[in-house]
From TrEMBL:
Gene3D superfamilies: alpha/beta hydrolase (3.40.50.1820), TolB, C-terminal domain (2.120.10.30). It holds the Pfam family Peptidase_S9. This enzyme catalyzes the hydrolysis of the N-terminal peptide bond of an N-acetylated peptide to generate an N-acetylated amino acid and a peptide with a free N-terminus. It preferentially cleaves off Ac-Ala, Ac-Met and Ac-Ser. Also, involved in the degradation of oxidized and glycated proteins. Residues 1-19 form the signal peptide. The keyword Nucleus does not apply. It comes from Cecembia calidifontis. This is Acyl-peptide hydrolase. It comes from the Bacteria.
Length: 689
């Protein structure tokens, strides 16, 4: 008897030891900043390994990964803007964090050192890292001896081999500068100069030391793109939309156009104008990059257009204005990558599987498309190498990882770095459509509990993404923020929860009518109906305990969590609101600086009625509020004010605050703490029932 009891105790202790934690689910290094050398022989990327960020290199043909830097610790210092020098012998990168409106760089680790963005040059032969300048957005001159960059809103040019020291801006200007691009031989630098309600394309002539704005307007000009011979500069002209705030539906407006500047005559002409109606709005965040115009060898311009309700690629012949659609099917082109081969573009899209991401090769000669890699996994950020194509890849079983696809098959880069403690046998998501009471259909993924048993009822969680211009995938996401959320949903499933991840209306990936849904966001909060419908769907399932349904999410997901708790007392057990929006009128000015609620009373009234605060008097269920107090997206006071009101109403509120932390937590340990706190809060209340 004693021996059997001892055996049971040992089995219990062993099972507890083997139980995997939230930290295990968040243990996989996350790759970013993928880049390839000009000759296609070298790949580099950044791994964020539990907050420790370092640069890795892999050379053709073996692609054996080598760590180039030796930065230690979960210190919150980001590494970005990774680019090879033209000769491939060095890497430039930016390390450090952006500043808030008070001019303070993010510093959640409370480091007693300068944490602002700084540019470094890494010698690939010696692995020596040399400080170059404070700033960001580095861009090599075509000759490789100089580099332009931004610092404090001004443009600087320095010799790569120069000694750090005081240096004057390249030129004097007004406005906020971005989208730097050199002419093919480097005699001229083009850029966008943003003036709030209009923007110019500017050109700085390096030889003549002359700044000019060749064609000014009251519109938003931007995305300058040089022709391969340097004779023309193409750019977009997007009309200003008066009093249009973000987070409100817009499907039509004054159409945008493409213009071309002849550098010889300095005269510009329109070569394309979008049609009235659908497609007249230039979508701001798709493709997700600083380029929107790509030249072909035959003097055509490739550009994104939403003419058929999907962001796809078209080409226009600049001589006669003839337009041709290049990408077939129903789906969006989310990102476009130029190639080592001038006659192709590499696309990240969801055309072949709307719930994921695929790679497409676009042949610019015969205008054909080809699927790259299989549909079993998700793939993005493709790069052409001399002997294959590299990309990031994920599945529901494995978070993002760098891969190389060659004739002999697909291979994981740095496979030995994949953690041994990452859980196996994860829950495969089931795709589900959910119809709201107004008839709108949203989309979701359902993760069943580990060791699922028919006839048993489980508690359920609903994850609500941020954005709202986001799409959760049928595998781990390509953003670290949402990859972490996917890991948390899998953790919930491992702990006996039914976990639902909802793609509610106003997100991307499903076309213009889904993204620009009527009355969404600050124009009526219609997407709240999708969350209510998701809860009703779960409550109708025989395997869900309808008294234990819990919404959780961050940013826009926190906004929706707060909304449903305030609007539907008794429907949910509790909620977890991570840096959520609670009053649109406090948050909109972050994205639209011109907006002042008192100046626009009608907009402000509707925005408030579309906010959780409008319904807050009904709120009864417990909530956990989590936020960093240096949040640059959702002002920290949103949570402070909500906490005060809920306390007065006698609502149970717990809070977790990360000092000096930003919106997307920079410290890995803060992600772990936030998720552990959320799970403990949920478990505590489930056990009370």
């Amino acid at each position: 008897m004693k021996r059997n009891l001892l055996s049971l105790i040992l089995i219990f202790i062993f099972s507890q030891t083997m139980a995997q934690s939230i930290a295990d689910f968040l243990s996989v290094p996350f790759p970013t900043a993928f880049t390839v050398s000009n000759d296609g022989k070298r790949l580099a990327w950044v791994f964020n390994d539990k907050g420790e960020r370092n640069i890795f290199l892999a050379d053709s043909p073996g692609y054996q990964a080598v760590r180039l830097t030796d930065f230690k610790g979960d210190n919150g210092l980001e590494i970005s803007n990774l680019i090879f020098s033209p000769d491939g012998r060095s890497l430039v990168f930016v390390r450090g964090n952006a500043k808030n409106r008070q001019g303070e760089p993010a510093n959640p680790a409370l480091l007693q050192e300068n944490t602002e963005q700084q540019i470094y040059i890494l010698d690939l032969r010696t692995k020596e890292v040399k400080f170059f300048a404070s700033g960001n957005s580095p861009l090599f001159h075509p000759d490789g001896t100089r580099m332009v960059y931004l610092q404090g809103g001004k443009v600087y040019l320095r010799n790569v081999q120069g000694t750090p020291g005081t240096i004057a801006p390249l030129f004097t200007h007004r406005g906020s500068i971005s989208q730097l691009t050199w002419s093919p031989v480097g005699k001229k630098l083009a850029f966008k100069s943003d003036r709030t309600d209009h923007a110019f394309v500017g050109i700085y002539d390096l030889e003549q030391q002359k700044l000019s704005y060749p064609e000014t307007s009251m519109d938003h000009d931007g995305y300058p793109s040089w022709s391969p011979d340097g004779k023309y500069l193409a750019y977009l002209r997007v009309p200003h939309i008066h009093n249009q705030i973000l987070f409100k539906s817009i499907k039509t407006t004054n159409p945008w156009s493409i213009r071309i500047l002849d550098l010889n005559s300095m005269e510009a002409k329109e070569v394309f104008r979008a049609d009235e109606g659908i497609g007249s709005v230039m979508v701001a965040d798709i493709p997700a990059q600083n380029e929107r115009l790509w030249w072909t060898a035959s003097q055509e311009l490739v550009f994104p257009w939403e003419k058929n309700g999907w962001v796809q690629l078209y080409a226009v012949q600049i001589g006669n204005g003839k337009v041709q659609r290049l990408t077939p099917g129903s789906g969006m082109v989310e990102k476009v990558q130029t190639s080592l081969h001038a006659d192709e573009l590499l696309l990240t899209s969801n055309t072949f599987k709307i719930s994921g991401r695929q790679l497409i090769r676009l042949d610019l000669k015969d205008k054909s498309t080809e699927l790259i890699a299989d549909l079993k996994s998700n793939h993005w950020s493709p790069l052409r190498t001399v002997d294959g194509i590299a990309y990031f890849s994920s599945s529901f079983e494995r978070p993002a990882w760098p891969m190389i696809l060659k004739e002999d098959g697909e291979k994981m880069l740095a496979a030995d770095l994949f953690p041994k403690n990452f859980p196996e046998k994860l829950s495969k998501p089931e795709l589900i459509d959910i119809r709201a009471k107004d008839g709108f259909v949203s989309h979701a993924y359902l993760y069943k509990p580990k060791d699922y048993q028919e006839g048993k009822q489980y508690p359920a969680v609903i994850f609500l993404h941020g954005g709202s211009r986001r799409q959760m995938l049928d595998g781990f996401n390509y953003s670290i923020y949402y990859s972490n959320a996917d890991a948390m949903q899998q953790y919930f499933a491992s702990q006996g929860f039914v976990a639902l991840t909802l793609n509610y209306r106003s997100g991307i990936g499903y076309g213009i009518n889904f993204r620009e849904a009527e009355n969404y966001g600050a124009g009526g909060a219609s997407e709240v109906a999708d969350v209510m419908a998701a809860a009703d769907y779960l409550a109708s399932r025989p395997d869900v305990d309808a008294s234990k349904i819990i919404p959780w999410g961050g940013s826009y997901g926190g906004y929706l969590t707060a909304h449903v708790l305030a609007q539907a007392p008794g429907k949910f057990l509790l909620g977890v609101d991570i840096h959520g929006v609670h009053d649109w009128n406090n948050v909109i000015p972050t994205f639209n600086p011109w907006y002042k609620p008192e100046k626009y009373p009608e907009i402000a009234a509707l925005a408030f009625q579309s906010s959780p605060m409008f319904h807050v008097k009904n709120w009864k269920e417990p909530v956990l509020l989590i936020s960093g107090d240096d949040d640059r997206n959702v002002v920290f006071s949103e949570s402070v004010e909500l906490l005060e009101i809920l306390r007065k109403q006698g609502v149970e509120v717990e809070q977790l605050v990360f000092p000096d932390e930003v919106h997307s937590f920079l410290l890995h340990r803060n992600w772990v703490k936030a998720y552990e706190a959320a799970f403990e809060f949920i478990q505590k209340h489930i056990q009370k029932r």
